[in-house]
């Protein structure tokens, strides 16, 4: 059996058991309903399933156990790392695209410009080997173009875009560059000394990609309408989000976050579905922005 088949089978088992506990036969029955799984011959013996469970624990750090009283398998511990989860999810999307090919509007994708992902392999190589890179960069705000020479540190995803976090060799400041704005990328053979920069710590209290602008993290409380609140509860705005209370009138959430420009824009995007309760200065800023928007009409 090929590696591709094994990965597909692991992915299928994880997806099924995340829905509910299942017996060996129930897993096989569910797999048999998937034409792609049948084409890939993913139906297996119970002995193979046992080996799959060991492999899944090793590869994805997802521990699957069985309940002897019901003879059903269930996910006991799920500590799958983000990169592993994203890899598995993308694998599932690729399979879905293959299944939907030739079936009209089975899958509907958003229209959007390219993400600059063609640069990722080269940038990762430069980051891992501490190599200078040079490129032309087109700014978001005014469309101006400039030549850059930087020390690449990491790649970060934010708001469906990928960014290069790097130290500009010109002024030795840490800056963010959207990959879709990078042109004529060149990787130098010249090495630099590793940059001391803890990216996870630096961005921990940030909302998106804006950082290093001086704002300190503060306690924020937002009140959403029940309809919007249920959505926010299922898809948190930030890792610090905590549900304070909810009833038929509102959902209140607390955050510990830097009130940067992109976070303020996120609040404004919810219009009359959200209200800032704390802090007062953020409440005033959002109020001024809403009044300025209203004055345009």
UniProtKB/TrEMBL annotation:
Residues 119-186 form the WYL domain. InterPro entries: CBASS_pafABC_assoc_protein, WCX_dom, WYL_dom. This is WYL domain-containing protein. It comes from Christiangramia forsetii. It comes from the Bacteria. Coiled coil: none annotated. Residues 217-294 form the WCX domain. Pfam families: WCX (PF25583), WYL (PF13280).
């Amino acid at each position: 059996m090929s590696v591709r088949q094994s990965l597909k089978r692991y992915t299928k088992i994880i997806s099924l058991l995340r829905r509910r506990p299942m017996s060996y036969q129930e897993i096989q029955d569910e797999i048999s309903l998937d034409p792609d799984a049948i084409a890939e011959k993913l139906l297996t013996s119970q002995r193979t399933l046992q080996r799959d469970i060991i492999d899944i624990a090793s590869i994805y750090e997802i521990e699957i156990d069985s309940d002897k009283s019901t003879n059903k398998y269930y996910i006991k511990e799920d500590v799958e790392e983000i990169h592993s989860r994203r890899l598995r999810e993308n694998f599932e999307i690729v399979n879905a695209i293959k299944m939907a090919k030739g079936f009209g509007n089975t899958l509907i994708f958003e229209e959007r410009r390219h993400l600059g992902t063609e640069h990722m392999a080269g940038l990762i190589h430069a980051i891992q080997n501490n190599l200078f890179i040079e490129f032309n960069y087109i700014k978001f705000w005014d469309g101006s173009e400039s030549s850059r020479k930087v020390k690449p540190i990491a790649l970060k995803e934010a708001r469906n875009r990928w960014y290069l976090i790097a130290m500009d060799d010109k002024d030795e400041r840490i800056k963010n560059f959207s990959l879709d704005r990078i042109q004529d990328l060149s990787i130098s053979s010249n090495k630099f000394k590793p940059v001391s920069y803890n990216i996870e710590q630096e961005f921990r209290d940030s909302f998106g990609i804006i950082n290093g602008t001086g704002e300190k993290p503060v306690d924020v409380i937002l009140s959403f309408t029940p309809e919007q609140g249920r959505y926010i509860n299922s898809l948190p705005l930030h890792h610090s989000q905590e549900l304070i209370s909810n009833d038929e009138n509102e959902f209140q959430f607390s955050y510990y976050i830097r009130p940067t420009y992109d976070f303020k824009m996120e609040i404004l995007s919810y219009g009359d579905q959200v209200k800032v309760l704390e802090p007062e200065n953020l409440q005033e800023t959002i109020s001024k922005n809403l009044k300025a928007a209203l004055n345009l009409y």
